[in-house]
Amino acid sequence: MVKKTLALAAAIIFSSSFAQARDQIKIVGSSTVYPFATTVAEKFGKTTSFKTPVVESTGSGGGLKLFCAGIGVKHPDITNASRRIKKKEVSRCAENGIKDIVEVKVGYDGIVLANSKKSEKFELTRKDIFLALAKDIPAGDGKLIPNPHKTWKDVNAALPAIKIEVLGPPPTSGTRDAFAELAMEGGCKKFKWIKAMKKGDKTLGIKKDKKAYKRICHTVREDGAYIEAGENDNMIIGKLEANPKALGIFGYSFLDQNANKVQGSKIEGNAPTFENIAEGSYPISRPLYFYVKKAHIGVVPGIEEFMNEFASERTSGPDGYLTDKGLIPMGTVERKARDKMVASLGNLKL
Amino acid sequence: MTELAFKGPSAEQLRRRHLAEKRFRLFAISSVFLGLAFLGVLFIIVAISGADAVRQAKMLLTISLDVDEFEEGKNSNSAQISKADFEGFIKKSMRSSFPDAKTRRMKRELSKLVSSGAAYELREFILTNPNQIGEEITIWVTASDDVDMLLKGKLNRDLPADLRQLSDQQLLWLDQLMEQNKLEMQFNWTLFTKGDSREPEQAGIAGAMIGSFYSVMVCLLISFPLGVLAAIYLESFAPKNAWTSFIEVNINNLAAVPSIVFGLLGLAVFLNFFELPRSAPLVGGMVLALMTLPTIIIAGRAAIQSVPPSIKEAALAVGASPIQAVFHHVLPLAMPGMLTGTIIGTARALGETAPLLMIGMVAFVVDLPTTFTDPATALPVQVFLWSDMPETAFAERTSAAILVLLAFVGTLNLTAVILRNKFETRY
Q1: Residue A9 confidence (pLDDT)
Q2: Tens-place pLDDT, residues A185-223
Q3: In whole angstroms, what is the distance from residue A97 CA to residue A303 CA?
Q4: CATH number assigned to the domain covering A17-108+287-344
Q5: Is A16 in the B-facing interface, judged by CB distances under 8 Å?
Q6: How far apart, in whole angstroms, are the C-alpha atoms of residue B424 and residue B427?
């Protein structure tokens, strides 16, 4: 009996043909784009004769790493990203022979700071957010002190005297990167001498020190006011319901689906609504992209058709089905530029 | 000189001793009960929320299948039928039931009451009943997840209109449908027969179940024979020297290695070196086999040790070769113990997600896998993926998937207990 099982195991391992050709699109990348990419993939599989693409949620950075590993069927064809590809990543791609990449912008995603409906709605500015959540904050000119703020009232007298408690994603998340860049840095820049560090300013006598600038603006405090709540946004919403005093950071699509439980804070007077994010008046929003390996078009069937499906009006247009999933569509001008890119398979230009 | 006499404990000492005894028992019992209570509460919460997932709101539509909509009319073949505009049929039917939907916005709201999967259900129906073309048919189609949530009482209709997923007008239409008995809860077959979907009402765990089944099969086929042979060799044939004790220590260490490490190993060796396909249950099973192997070897050795040496010696004494003695006499007696170890190891492998993450099995896979190399997910992965979805209807499906996973693991453990009791030999 043992001999038979052994033989069978060996037979299975060695006989399966590891088909060198692949007839199914493989997509990796951002967990923020995942809900949108999967919607399109499913629709694509059901309405065309192609197989349904397989979508993996690896995070933007992880996805680009897999994407840039090489050309050939064992590497993914498309990667999603909730930020733009970096120069470093483009050169890593080039080292591995991936010279031609098509960049397709999908739309926008807003990052919201929300609290339970049982509490008062917050009205914040990016400066408030920075002063409440940064590890060190400026005191006077050119000096930094560890963040002393305990309540929101300490940050800004107009805010309620509630303890600062913010539930947000961990540093591995793209949402956290975007939050640091758009909300924290946006508030950080309001201090002239810090802003001057980014490019250097002779009149103020400040040297260029990009690293220090980034450290000051992006470092989140670690004394318990910012609570890392994991990548699962549903969990954050559950915790906000249980603790009406806390604020949570997550993507707009979750606010949209849970509007009966939580409310988004106004940032600089703009509520995180579909319209405000779409027209750009809500300040914390980021573009979403996907990148296509040009060398795979024509090798793996359906890539071009998939790109067209994603970029079509009925998908990511203002009334497209992705807007039901919480995607914020681009304006007409941007969409036209994108469509041209998709039609001509134009190369990525940074 | 004092007399040495046994005095015995005093009454006070006795009382304290008894108290300590009682206290110990109380602690032991309460810890057992506490454990049971946690397990019970967890199970009840999951079961209550998962129970809702087996029902799904369905809507009765009357659809006239106009002959002109099909390329060759009544004589259309399946390819020609598939080209018809099924979404159009559904929309038309909805609009004829509610002619009051006139503006674009209202029409859009109306079509959102039905799941986007309804068109595929209609296509399936016509493909199996092509003779119905040209007739007027009534068909139950899946309602959207928002309607489903409303019927399950999970959508509060007293909230202001901009805070709920359904508008006042949509509620009005739904009430009308309910009065006409055209909206009801039915058994959710989709959940058990379909693969993943981005629409909760179309999502199923069949894909994940097949993926789990394939992975566990591969895992068993590799780890059981290898583990048993390794255990037999180490226990009955290997010389006792520094080498074998080195191997022994390493096997014990391997059993304590975090599972994600095996995933990394799988990525480096199976995917990058051997170039096996990503996301395939074959690779998943191989990684899980690596993880289960030490458990099986350790359990197997313990099982062989528990067979009295007299049995082997008796066989050798009457002229059996060492191999005969082991395979004819020791192994059959050790088998129940080995099987128990294997099954418990497999049950652990069934609930693993971490190593699968590295080899790409944490993915959105719609098509049901048919071979060992097709992309697939596994049950725990499906739980993980659904728990992170924004739509509230996924919450109950997550619980349902957990229940199915628990049922699988429970069955495996029960098999282990039954096997042990059935084949247990007393000497």
Answers
A1: 53
A2: 988 888 888 888 887 777 777 777 888 888 888 999 988
A3: 19
A4: 3.40.190.10
A5: yes
A6: 10
> Exposed, middle or buried by CB within 10 Å (0-12, 13-18, 19+), for B420?
middle
Q: Looking at chain A, which residue has its C-alpha nearest residue B109?
A: A324
Enumerate residues 298 to 337 of chain A having a beta carbon within 8 A of any beta carbon in chain B. Answer: 319, 321, 324-326
Per-residue model confidence (pLDDT) at position A5? 57
Say how far apart CA A316 and CA A310 lie, in whole Å. 7
How would DSSP label each residue in B282-312? HHHHHHHHHHHHHHHHHHHHHHHHTS-HHHH
Helix segments in A49-105, DSSP class H: 60-67, 87-95
Task: Answer yes or no: do A74 and B271 touch at CB < 8 A.
Answer: yes
From chain A residues 32-51, the ones with a CB under 8 A of any chain B CB are 34-35, 37-39, 41-43, 45-46, 51
In the stretch 238-267 of chain A, residues with CB closer than 8 A to chain B read 253-254, 256-260
Q: How far is CA A286 from CA A83, A107, A251, A295, B161, in A?
A: 7, 9, 10, 28, 29
Candidate CATH numbers 3.40.830.10, 3.30.450.20, 3.30.43.10, 3.40.190.10; the one for domain A110-285: 3.40.190.10
Q: Is the pLDDT of residue A125 over 50?
A: yes
Domain ranges of chain A: 17-108+287-344, 110-285
Which candidate from A43, A254, A260 shows the least CB-CB separation from B163?
A260
How far is the CA of B292 from the CAs of A1, A165, B32, B347, in angstroms? 20, 43, 28, 10
Question: What are the helix (H) ranges across B194-353?
Answer: 206-232, 242-254, 259-266, 281-305, 309-317, 322-324, 331-350
Percentage, residues of chain A above pLDDT 90: 32
Mean pLDDT, chain A, as a whole number? 86
Q: Which domains does chain B have, with CATH numbers?
A: 52-188 (no CATH), 206-423 (1.10.3720.10)
Q: How many CB pairs under 8 A join A and B?
A: 109
CA distances from B32 to A117, B22, B36, B39 (A): 40, 15, 6, 11
In this complex, is the C-beta atom of A13 within 8 Å of any C-beta atom belonging to chain B? Answer: yes
A141 vs A11, residue with greater confidence? A141
